[in-house]
């Protein structure tokens, strides 16, 4: 559906939520690739804690709780060292769960929560959380970054991946790279039959079909329109992209999360929105959303010094 249809659909969700105020639950969710808690740049973990505090997050889906391996290339980059999730949780007074299973959708992930974490899911992709008596599932992922189709389309070398020319080639490559992971996430979400709300969040390493549009091509943001398969699947499964729900105009509000470490004009990189929070719940209302990062106008919530090579995304919802 286009942006206008999405806005109408969200209006219906908001109206439905207005009738459920007696049992309404509010949450502020955050997705944050913390780059080893800043450790890959020699930064202290308290900078990451400061960013989470500034966002006012209740639950954080964290990627890269451990340092990058040596070597760290497009083809080989295993995490090393200890997870910083316990330190972050202790500083916040939160609960945490480190995701440690061998799963291609996980790369040093963790969930940190103000509310008690009840149990992990069978494949370790997520956790069940007791939010004031309501069952909330949070699936936290860091999907494969290679091949990275935006680079392939822009003739930017990244590992041994071949360059691509068409949207169809990019979709096929993205599906081959991350399709099984998205399918597993949706299957896990569908299996959580007792859930009052389900969130899928993290570093997708794949853009959104709502950002690679004719409008962003005309604006010079993207090289061509691409119906990226991962976000398309999530929407078809009933999930809402919380940032794009709050800001349906992808040209006026691109919401770039990758990357604060290079200039937008750098020919060896491409800035994009690849960090997401998707949600599915009855009477879902999206109250606000934004980017957390190092400076305005790229970030809605500015935190300096900034510890990561990604900006974070935050959203306040009720259901």
Automatic annotation (TrEMBL):
Keywords: Endonuclease, Hydrolase, Nuclease, Signal. Coiled coil: none annotated. The keyword DNA damage does not apply. Pfam families: Exo_endo_phos. Residues 30-310 form the Endonuclease/exonuclease/phosphatase domain. InterPro entries: Endo/exonu/phosph_ase_sf (IPR036691), Endo/exonuclease/phosphatase (IPR005135). Residues 1-22 form the signal peptide. The lineage of its organism: Bacteria, Pseudomonadati, Pseudomonadota, Alphaproteobacteria, Hyphomicrobiales. This is Endonuclease/exonuclease/phosphatase family protein. The keyword Zinc does not apply. One of its GO terms (molecular function) is endonuclease activity. It comes from Mesorhizobium qingshengii. Transmembrane segments: none annotated. It comes from the Bacteria.
């Amino acid at each position: 559906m286009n942006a206008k249809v999405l806005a109408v659909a969200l209006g219906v969700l908001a109206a439905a939520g207005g009738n459920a105020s007696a049992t309404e639950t509010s949450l502020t969710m955050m997705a944050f690739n913390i780059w080893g808690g800043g450790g890959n740049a020699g930064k202290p973990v308290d900078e990451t804690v400061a960013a989470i505090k500034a966002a006012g997050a209740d639950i954080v889906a964290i990627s890269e709780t451990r340092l990058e391996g040596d070597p760290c290339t497009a083809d080989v980059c295993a995490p090393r060292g200890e997870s910083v999730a316990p330190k972050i949780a202790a500083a916040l007074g939160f609960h945490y769960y480190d995701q440690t299973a061998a799963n291609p959708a996980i790369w040093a992930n963790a969930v940190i929560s103000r509310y008690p974490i009840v149990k992990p899911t069978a494949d370790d992709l997520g956790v069940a959380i007791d939010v004031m008596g309501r069952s909330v599932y949070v699936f936290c992922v860091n999907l494969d970054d290679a091949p990275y189709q935006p680079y392939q389309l822009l003739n930017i070398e990244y590992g041994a991946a071949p360059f691509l020319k068409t949207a169809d080639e990019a979709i096929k490559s993205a599906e081959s790279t991350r399709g099984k992971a998205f399918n597993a996430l949706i299957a896990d979400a569908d299996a959580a039959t007792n859930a009052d709300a389900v969130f899928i969040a993290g570093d997708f390493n794949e853009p959104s079909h709502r950002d690679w549009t004719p409008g962003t091509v005309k604006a010079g943001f993207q090289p061509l329109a691409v119906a990226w398969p991962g976000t398309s699947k999530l929407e078809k499964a009933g999930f809402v992209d919380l940032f794009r729900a709050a800001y349906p105009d992808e040209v006026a509000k691109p919401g770039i999360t990758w990357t604060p470490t290079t200039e937008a004009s750098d020919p060896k990189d491409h800035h994009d929105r690849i960090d997401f929070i998707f949600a599915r719940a009855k009477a879902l209302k999206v109250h606000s959303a934004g980017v957390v990062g190092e400076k305005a106008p790229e970030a809605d919530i500015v935190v300096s010094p900034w510890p990561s090579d990604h900006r974070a995304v935050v959203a306040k919802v009720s259901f």
